[in-house]
């Protein structure tokens, strides 16, 4: 069975976007972090996005600026298969992208039962909330950034039940980020 991982960046006070929807505070550039990001991008698999995150990624990763800034991540992002969940998009033009207009939980449940690579959700807080609520996320990789935003959107804002997690790994970075790996507890 295919596994689903969520790779998410949050502020110290638990927001994944600020009050205006901005996530630029989470994009630090330093050699150690870039190496980690490149390693993740080389890991293969399929990327899952909601519309907002997809459009943000689509505007950046296929560009010369992305290749110049971080060639390894750009190459991985552009080559990997991608699925965007949206009821409003008419087409998805970024390379290797499939547009899904169906219910994300039902679609991911079906995708997990089919052969194929593991999947990872990047950003896409609304989709993360829906899939967490449905018990479909096998692993959470939460990057805690050393910043307090005060206001914003929480990653699990629509989850209305407790989801027990156990920490399986931790990695601190010199830029202040800490990555926490969790798995759901049955």
Low-confidence parts lasting 5 or more residues at pLDDT below 50? none
The CATH architecture name reads 3-Layer(aba) Sandwich
> What series of H and E elements makes up the topology?
EEHEHHHEEHEHEEEE
Oligomerization state: single chain
First-last Cα distance: 17 Å
Number of strands: 10
CATH topology: Dihydrofolate Reductase, subunit A
Main β-sheet: number of strands, strand sense, barrel status?
Answer: 8 strands, mixed
Shape: globular
Short account of what is shown:
This protein has 186 residues and is of the alpha/beta class. It has helices spanning 31-41, 51-60, 64-69, 71-79, 104-113, 125-133, and strands at 4-11, 15-18, 46-50, 82-85, 97-100, 119-122, 139-145, 152-154, 165-172, 178-184.
Write structural notes for this entry:
By secondary structure, the protein is α/β, with parallel strands linked by helices. It has a single domain (4-184), classed as Dihydrofolate Reductase, subunit A. Helices cover 30% and strands 29% of the residues. The strands form two sheets. The chain has an eight-stranded mixed beta sheet. It has a two-stranded antiparallel ribbon with strand order 2-8. Helix 1 packs parallel to helix 4. The chain is globular, with a radius of gyration of 16 Å.
């Amino acid at each position: 069975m295919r596994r689903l991982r969520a790779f998410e960046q949050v502020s110290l006070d638990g927001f994944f976007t600020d009050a205006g929807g901005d996530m630029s505070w989470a994009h630090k550039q330093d050699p150690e972090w870039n190496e980690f990001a490149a390693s993740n991008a080389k890991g293969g698999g399929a990327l899952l996005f909601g519309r907002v995150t997809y459009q943000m990624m689509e505007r950046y990763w296929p560009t010369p600026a992305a290749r110049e800034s971080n060639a390894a991540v750009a190459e991985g992002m552009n080559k990997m298969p991608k699925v965007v969940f949206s009821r409003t998009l008419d087409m998805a033009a970024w390379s290797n992208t499939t547009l899904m207009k169906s219910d994300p939980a039902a679609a991911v449940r079906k995708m997990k039962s089919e052969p194929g690579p593991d999947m990872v959700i990047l950003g896409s807080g609304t989709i993360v909330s829906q899939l967490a609520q449905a018990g479909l996320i096998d692993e959470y990789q939460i990057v805690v950034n050393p910043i307090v935003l005060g206001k914003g959107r929480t990653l699990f804002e629509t989850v209305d039940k407790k989801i027990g997690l156990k920490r399986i790994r931790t990695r601190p970075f010199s830029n202040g980020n800490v990555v926490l790996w969790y798995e759901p507890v049955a």
